[in-house]
Amino acid sequence: MHLTSRQERIFVAGHRGLVGSAVTRKLRASGFDNLLTKTRQALDLRDQQAVNRFFECERPEFVVVAAARVGGILANATYPADFIGDNLAIQTNVLQAAFRNDTKRLLFLGSTCVYPRDAPQPLREQYLLTGPLEHTNEWYAVAKIAGIKYCQALRKQHGCDFLSLMPTNLYGPGDNFDLKTSHVLPALLRKVHEAKLNGDRKIILWGTGTPRREFMYCDDLADACLFVLQRPEATLYDVAPDGLFNVGVGKDIQIIELLQLIKRIVGTECSVVHDTSKPDGTPRKLVDVSRLHGLGWRAPTSLDAGIRATYAWMLQHADI
Ligand code: GFB
C-alpha cells in the first residue's frame, strides 16, 4: 500500500548512516514528521527480540531498511563474517517483524554488487542470480540477495508489499572518510585534500585505476525512496513483477577519471602512484535504470555538484 498521508508512521532503520540520514532529511523536508528512529545503542537490529519488541510497540506503517554493515572494497574483503552475518541478521529481523506487524510497505535497500561480476552492462534487474559474483564482496552480496529473495517470498506467500531498491555506488554528506574502510570517492577526496594541505606531489591510488563505477549522490537515492513509497502498488509491480528496482544515474566513469575530477574540485595537482597490492574488484558496474525512468524518476544531482557538496561537508564535519 502506498504512502498517502504525512501522518503515517515511518521507521527509517539506520537513520544515522549515509543513506538513512539522507532518507530522513528528504522525508522531513517533504513534511513527513512522524518518523521513528532509533540509534544503534537504543536498538541493536541484530537482536531479534529487541526488534520484535520495537515493532510490537511502535507498529510502523512504512519501513525503509537503510541499516546495514557497509564498507569499501578492502573492508568487504577483510571482514567477510561481519558483512554476511550482521546483514543477514539485521534484514531478517526487520523484514520478519514488519510482516508480523502489518507494515503496509517496506523498502529494502541493497547494492548493485548483487549482480554477477561478468553480467552484460548495463545491469538489468533480470540478471540477478545468472552467474558468479565478484569475490571481493560476495559475502555482502549474498546477504543482500537473501534480503531481496526474502521480500519476494513474503510477497508470494503472504502478499506483503515489500520492495527492493538496488542503488549504485553512493557518496555524499555523512560519508565514511576512514581510508581503510571507506569507498573510493570519499577516500580520494580525503587523499587529494591532504595532499593539497601537506604540499605532497603524489597520491596513492589502489589498483590500476581502470575499473569503471557509477556514482550517485545519497540524496538522490532518498528522492527515489520517497518516489517509490508514493507510487500505487499496481503501478510498481506492473513494471517490476519481481519487486526489484535499480537506482542509478545511467553513466559511469573510470576511477582514474574520478581522481582527475576530484583534483579539479579540490584545486590541486599531484601525480599518481598505483598500489597494485590492492584489488580492482569488479571491472564495471553500470545499472540499467529503465524501470524507474519509465515511471518518471531521474537522479537530479550531477557528479560535479554532488562531489562539491560532499567536499564542503567533509571540510566542515570530518575529523581530518
Ligand atoms: O569504492 P570501492 O571501495 O568499492 O572501490 P567497489 C572502487 C574502486 O576504486 C576499486 C579503487 O577498483 C578500488 O581498487 N580505489 C582506488 C580505491 N583507490 C582507492 C582508495 O583509496 N579506496 C578505495 N576504497 N578504493 C564496494 C563493494 O565495491 O562497493 C560493496 O565492496 C558495495 O559490496 C560497494 O557494493 C558499493 O565499488 O569495488
Task: Compute the number of structural domains.
Answer: 1
Unreliable runs, pLDDT <50, ≥5 residues? none
Overall outline = globular
In DSSP terms (H or I, runs of 4 or more residues), the helix count works out at 11
* Cross-sheet strand order for the largest sheet: 2-1-3-4-5-10
Provide the CATH topology: Rossmann fold
**Major sheet attributes:** 6 strands, parallel
Quote the beta fraction. 5-15%
Description:
This protein has 320 residues and is α/β, with parallel strands linked by helices. It has one domain: NAD(P)-binding Rossmann-like Domain (Rossmann fold, 3-Layer(aba) Sandwich), CATH 3.40.50.720. It has eleven helices and 13 strands. The chain has helices at 18-29, 48-58, 73-78, 80-100, 138-158, 184-198, 218-229, 233-239, 255-266, 290-295, 303-317; strands at 10-13, 35-36, 62-65, 105-109, 162-167, 169-171, 202-206, 212-213, 215-217, 244-247, 253-254, 271-275, 284-285. The chain has a six-stranded parallel sheet, sandwiched between helices. Helix 1 crosses helix 7. The model has no long low-confidence stretch (mean pLDDT 97). Residues 72-73, 76, 111, 113, 136-137, 140, 169, 182-184, 187, 205-207, 211, 213, 255, 278-281 line the site of guanosine-5'-diphosphate-beta-L-fucopyranose.
Write the layout of secondary structure elements.
Elements: E1 10-13, H1 18-29, E2 35-36, H2 48-58, E3 62-65, H3 73-78, H4 80-100, E4 105-109, H5 138-158, E5 162-167, E6 169-171, H6 184-198, E7 202-206, E8 212-213, E9 215-217, H7 218-229, H8 233-239, E10 244-247, E11 253-254, H9 255-266, E12 271-275, E13 284-285, H10 290-295, H11 303-317
Parallel strand pairs: 1-2, 1-3, 3-4, 4-5, 5-10, 6-9, 7-12, 8-13
Antiparallel strand pairs: 8-11
Helix pairs in contact: 1-7, 2-4, 4-5, 6-9, 6-11, 9-11
